[in-house]
Amino acid sequence: MRLPLAWRLAGRELRGGLAGFRLFFFCLALGVGLIAAVGTISAAVQLGLARDARALLGGDVELRLLYDPATPAELATFAEAGRVSALATMRVMAVKADRSQRLLVELKSVDQAYPLFGQMMLTPDEPLQPALARQNGAWGAVADGEVLERLGLKLGDVVKVGAATYQIRAVVAREPDRGADAFLLGPRFMVATASLADTGLVEPGSLIYRLYRIAYAPGLDAKAWLAALGQRFPDAGWRIRELSDAAPGVKRFVSQTTMFLTLVGLSALLVGGVGVGNAVAAYLDGRKETIAILKCLGAPASSIFTLYLSLILLLALGGIALGLAIGAAAPFIAAEPLASAFGLDLPAGLYPQPLAVAAGFGFLVALGFSLPALMRARDLPPGQLFRDMLERRRLRRRLLDWLLLAVVVALLMALTLVTSVDQRLAAWFVVASLATIAVFRLLALGIRTGAGCLARRSRGSLRRALADLAGPGAPTGSVLLSLGIGLTVLVAVASIQGNLRRELADTMPAQAPSFYFIDIQPAQAAAFDAIARSEPGLADLDRVPMLRGRITRMKDVPVEKLAPPKHDGWVLQGDRGVTWSALPPRGATLVAGSWWPADYKGPPLVSLDAEVADAFGLRLGDDITVNVLGREITGRIANLRRIDWETLAINFIMVFSPGILEGAPQTDIATLRVPADRELDLQRRVTDRFPNVSAIHVREALASVMRIVDAMGAAVASLAGIALVAGVAVLAGAVIADRRRRIYDAVVLKVLGATRADVLAGLALEYGILGFATAAIALLLGSLSAYGFVSWEMEQPFALLPSVVLATAVAGAVIAAVIGLAGTWRALGQKAAPLLRNE
Fold it and tell me: What would the pLDDT profile of 295-324 be if each residue is shown by its tens digit?
């Protein structure tokens, strides 16, 4: 039988109907569609980031200074490069005119040139500059809708920011450079730069970021200009961001989300692979007479293999095509939500590379999970094909068969690793997938063996259930693997989310302060303390001076030449808070070295966080250099501290010895704890007395984080549920494929005197045992996965959650029992006579 003939026969088989391949199509389309959708959306976002980089960054380059504005000489140099836009950002309190409500907002002052790129969109639609201009004695402002909602305002109402009064004239519908902000504690409140002086908030040491964005003049050599800028102002202390780093927060989010969702898609596709294998096995089981006849007529085994492999590949192309259509449509569907979330125009279109990757995964999964059934049909002798339903004969796999299966598995692993943005995580996924499949296969073997032994010692319905689990053709392995992977993923996701909630809800709030008060001027410190101490129930008042600086060197090595550890790169990103103290901070635990004397007057010494020191290989006596207000300050590490960040108390990774930072412009930061019913009163008293002081309400901040965790958990659980949906579909397919044997068994039992209730009890026991066994292993594997992620990736304590354990066990048993009974219900009502006459 030559290949063209095999394809012709495959076409005739297709004309016979595809009723047995609905599950095949569903599993392939689901897995391929999810992987393709994730890949195409990620590609569209990456293209959008590259295309809109100037709008997201706000210019061709951004130079950021902390505290003080650029000097006239620096501004003149900026202007030589092209058009310049100067902005400032700071956290301030917006207070309703009647002082009944106040809200922490992210203030952003913009000049006439803003935005250099992109378009600011307001509701109602009007130009930005007139909306911010001074009219009838009041400055204008535009704000996020959340400001109006939480302060109970409407357009045209006024709010106080410091000493200035602003009239809210529009709502921000879209801010072109919103993606450039990594983290916002409050909603946006945008004003004109000219109005900033009226607020009275610009004081020495006030935490203000000055941003200078430049649109390069045509023909400018950007690299040469930046190099010359660094040589001309070597101590400026600014942080430079270029187009390649336009929206780092969005990039990290997209990269991590893409990686995780791709792994979820692969999980669903692996579960679907079990369904593919079941569908192929069931189809070939229904065609065993045809295969036997072909073999009796002299058809070689290789021709049989080629015929049905051709058929499977044709069907796989259909399922893959359906999945690719879903993936190709994803960017068009996601364009509007992503635009509103990140201010990013998603270039909807076709993205061949991720579609090709998804097709590759689908093809390899379809091939890999179909081969065992095809090999069995090829190798069984004609006579055995007629008896195979009642007596499953074990066949020895050929060496070439093992090699073929190994090649397919190796290609799947290679494709997973090559296309992953995090090879380490992908490698762990590959290892975990192989281990999970092996564990469930071993469990299936153990259940069959144990059930066979126990069946001989049991009676009644339990004996029949155990005999069915151990009998030939039982779907034990398919049920365990398909349902088990889905439950494992859900257990892992639920455990991770539960541990995050526990850490936030149970541990932190019990120890957390009520407020962080920032930007307290030194002259206000005594009065602030007096107000705080007059509050009933005050506890844990702590106030320290603070400056912010950027680490520039470690052991005399520029940070640009360092390769920071994966979880500790934040130390070198942006500005870090620094303080100084003659005495150890409250609750400090020294793990190495000793604190300097209270009257120490020597060269700068540093107390460093022990975890940071370990991550970067720093030891006692090493130097660390920080740029503060454009001045390089180098301190020698005198001791290492263990910091408990979970308390949310004031902690700094670097504490300097006195004698060098005190003369710099500075502000204080304070924390305290008061009863919940006194929090708003204290906030009102402090911010009314000191308009420049901003109050960060810790309870609200934690609630916001909790909402994010819950939303992400719900989204991830929904996506992980896709793997369970695939598993349930596979389970249903396995039950349906086994229906013929169930009908035969039910008829025989009825002839022997069994009632419908007896048959029903046996089936319920059989699938209940499978469900509980699957849930038990899923709990173990899912909890181990969650433990590894929480303990190693997030470096947080892990706790086993009983509610997750119970819910999963019950879900596994119920799903297996319900689908098992529903799929075999027809067997309970089957009449004996027609079947016996046919037999």
Answer: 777 777 777 787 778 888 888 888 899 989
**Model pTM?**
0.70
Sequence-distant (≥ 6) Cβ neighbours of residue 775 within 8 angstroms? 487, 808, 809, 810, 811, 812, 813
Tell me which residue of 17, 4, 471 sits closest to 283, measured CA to CA.
17
Q: For residue range 434-454, list pLDDT tens digits in order.
A: 887 888 888 888 888 887 788
Tell me the CA distances in angstroms from 246 to 43, 180, 232, 341, one per residue in order. Answer: 17, 6, 25, 16
Q: Are strands 164-174 and 82-96 parallel, antiparallel or unpaired?
A: unpaired
> What's the token pair of residue 102?
């106040």
* Per-position b or e across 193-206, b if 16+ CB within 10 A of its CB: bebbebbebbeebb
Cβ pair 320, 311 in contact under 8 A: no
306 three-state secondary structure: helix
Query: How many angstroms separate the CA atoms of 171 and 144, rounded?
Result: 6
Bridge partners (DSSP) listed for residue 240: 63
Let me know: does 629 contact 69? Beta carbons within 8 Å.
Answer: no
Task: Please count the CA atoms within 13 angstroms of the CA of 164 that sit on its side-chain side.
Answer: 26
Task: Please give the DSSP secondary-structure letter assigned to residue 541.
Answer: E
* Euclidean distance between CA atoms 46 and 50, whole angstroms: 6
> 124 preceded by cis ω (within 30°)?
yes
Taking the CB of residue 492, how many other CB atoms lie within 10 A of it? 25
The DSSP code for 138 is B
* Distance separating alpha carbons of residues 193 and 111, to the nearest angstrom: 5
pLDDT on residue 100:
86
- Paired strand residues for 86: 212
CA distances from 157 to 128, 162, 196, 342, 687 (A): 18, 17, 19, 28, 20
SS (H, E, C) 595-650: CCCCCCCCCCEEEEEHHHHHHHCCCCCCEEEEEECCEEEEEEEEEEEECCHHHCCC
CB 797, CB 831: distance < 8 Å: no
Q: Which of 458, 454, 474, 482 is nearest to 742 (CA)?
A: 474
Which residues lie below 8 Å from residue 177, measured CB to CB, with a gap of 6+?
55, 56, 57, 58, 115, 118, 343
